[in-house]
Amino acid sequence: MKLKRSLLVITTFALMLTSCGIFAENDEDIKTTRKATSVTSNRDGRLFKISDDDDPAEEDASPQKKMPAYPDLAPIPSIPDIAAGSPDDGSYPVAGGESGYYDEYGHYHYSADELYNEMYNACMEYRDVIYLDGVFEDADFQNAFNKVFLMNPDVFWVNNIRYQTFEDWTAKLDFDIYDGIDLSKVYAMHEEVINKADEIAAMAKKMPTDYERIKFVHDYIIEHTEYDEKVIDTYKNYAYGCLINGKTACHGYSKAFQLVTNRMGYTSGLIRGFADSKHSWNYIWFGDDYYWLDLTWDDPIEGEYAMVNHNYFMCSDDTMLKNRTINDYNAFIPVCDHDTYEYEKMNGLYLDSYDFDMIDSLMYACKDGHIDLRFANKEAYEDAYTALYKNGDIYKTSVFSRRTNTYFSWFDDDWCISIDWWEE
């Protein structure tokens, strides 16, 4: 889902108000306006179809359990199970070593951890089918499945995993590969996206603090990515589409951020939920707490002068969950109960009331022609919106001259105002 902001372009000669339209998208993404009308798709959850149904011809007997031969490949560098600086209380899910068991009849029952390992290894060997000498519970399959996609943001070619069990207590797992993907070429594509993530990580590590490194990744991805609802149902709505093609939707933004920050040693992940329609965003462990980020909603509208926003950078539950809900099938849901590192509070842009002189001073101090303001309550936000926009106080600011153009954007649910300005 992409938040499409209401936009005001102001000059001393002309005033133009642009209302942004609605774009129909699938379960991951939707663009909304200030007064939004949601559009939903007819597609079920992207990754969560579990089925023991298959071709009836295959149900009578177990297929021949012969693995295809694969060439020896140099291993892709893996992401640590627990990244440096992650919580040590065991709350973050990792691929553990819990074992399955044999029942009284000698049939093997896989644990969720063992299923995860089988699924992960199949992905890393670029297989589209594997056979297991045992069975498992539906809940363990779902658990393992969720972890595969939670913990491995570099996996972009698998659309779904389906299973079938047989009378001899064995199972078959089918890996549905996205259309447009040639499985024989996935290794090279996988290596390409890992190398790109490491390239961005290397640039970010040059920043002096962890906070600035995370912000660099956030800004870099937004600055180099174009939001494209056309890729939603494809492999391009993953880290590959974002980092290599430069076009993706919300799932791709989130996967790319997770991949780069994981490569840097941070514990971060992706959450699926709703914000008028189905949507994805990120969390990261920083300091001693989790924080939310939403790169899609921080990506400004298209335009030569639009700059990266930070309204959804390092947010708390109180800020982020005002206008969204989290699906309960996520493998991990963090508690983000601190606002210490919210962007506006870190940078003196959090205001308890509308104060023209304060806003004028803040705008004058911004050398890049962009400011993100957040207000402590709805009344303060509405006072600022009315004064700056409706009453024209924006014209009175020190940065405004007869040659100044301005983007004025507002976010009713989050009590935020963003302003961009530039000279002709």
Question: How would you describe the overall organization of this protein?
Answer:
InterPro entries: Papain-like_cys_pep_sf, Transglutaminase-like. Keywords: Signal. Pfam families: Transglut_core (PF01841). With about 425 residues, this protein is of the alpha+beta class. About 30% of the residues lie in helices and about 20% in strands. The protein has a domain at about 55-180. The protein has helices at about 110-125, 140-150, 185-205, 210-225, 240-245, 250-265, 295-300, 315-320, 345, 355-365, 380-390, and strands spanning about 5-10, 15-20, 100, 110, 130, 160-165, 170-175, 225, 245-250, 270-275, 275-285, 290-295, 315, 325, 350, 370-375, 405-410, 415-424. The strands form five sheets. Strands 2-1-17-18-16-15 form a six-stranded mixed β-sheet. A five-stranded antiparallel β-sheet has the order 13-12-11-10-14. The protein is elongated.
- Compute the average pLDDT: 81
Work out the strand percent. Answer: 15-25%
What gross morphology would you assign?
A: elongated
For this structure, the quaternary state is single chain
The helix fraction, in percent, is 25-40%
- SS summary, helix count: 11
Q: Mind telling me the C-alpha Rg?
A: 24 Å
Biggest sheet, strands in spatial order? 2-1-17-18-16-15
Kindly report how far apart the N and C termini lie: 33 Å
Contiguous runs where pLDDT drops below 50 for at least 5 residues: 4-85
Protein name: Transglutaminase-like superfamily protein
Organism: Ruminococcus albus
Keywords: Signal
InterPro entries: Papain-like_cys_pep_sf, Transglutaminase-like
